[in-house]
Predict the structure of Cytidylate kinase.
Amino acid sequence: MGKPLIVTIDGPAGVGKSTMAKQLAGHLSIPYLDTGAMFRSIAWKLGDGAWDWDKDRIQMTLDGMNFGLSGIGEDSVLTLNNTPVGSEIRTEQVGMWASNIATLPVIRTFLKTAQQNLGEKFSLVAEGRDMGTVIFPGAPHKFFLDASVEERANRRFKQLSSMNKPADFDELKDQISKRDHQDRNRVVAPLKAADDAITIDSTEMNKEQVFTVLKDGVA
Ligand code: C5P
């Protein structure tokens, strides 16, 4: 068996990384890895304020955690201790908790090992913030997906409205801006494009156009 193929997609909150990563993984018939979901599910398990705990207490909890991955494309399933990661992690509040714990080296070191272990076992489309820079620096295909904060808030607003969930555009824009600021400015593994990544500004592009760039990039 050859070495697994790794494709990385990084970018800020709400830019559509997951949608594109799922679609590209389906096209390549490989799993997609949502690393944001790994940070979110740890944040959810640890709970509010865990970013202020001492390192040993966090480490002890992490020692009992084990991530797994199965399936292909949009049917990829991420598990934590053999249970599929659920929709409870998909709120903006848990996103902020995730961003808070994502500043801690103890968390990043743990997830780096978990993510790299999955990348040894499987070919992956891996999406997150530091896939191309830190986790898989040797990946042959790297993308950085970007869009203005207004456009990203707008997409999230439409998505929530279509699910009949309450949404406030200004609040969404504010939450996304805050999370981005924290993710771009942290000391360890900040959000940024790898030097050898293809950057796609999708502000004025539709999904099909973005997908075409990704598909052509890996061809
Ligand atoms: O992508 P998603 O919004 O689910 O990510 C939640 C948070 O997890 C991000 O705001 C970021 O702080 C953190 N994260 C990270 N590195 C990754 C993926 C996510 O720091 N590779």
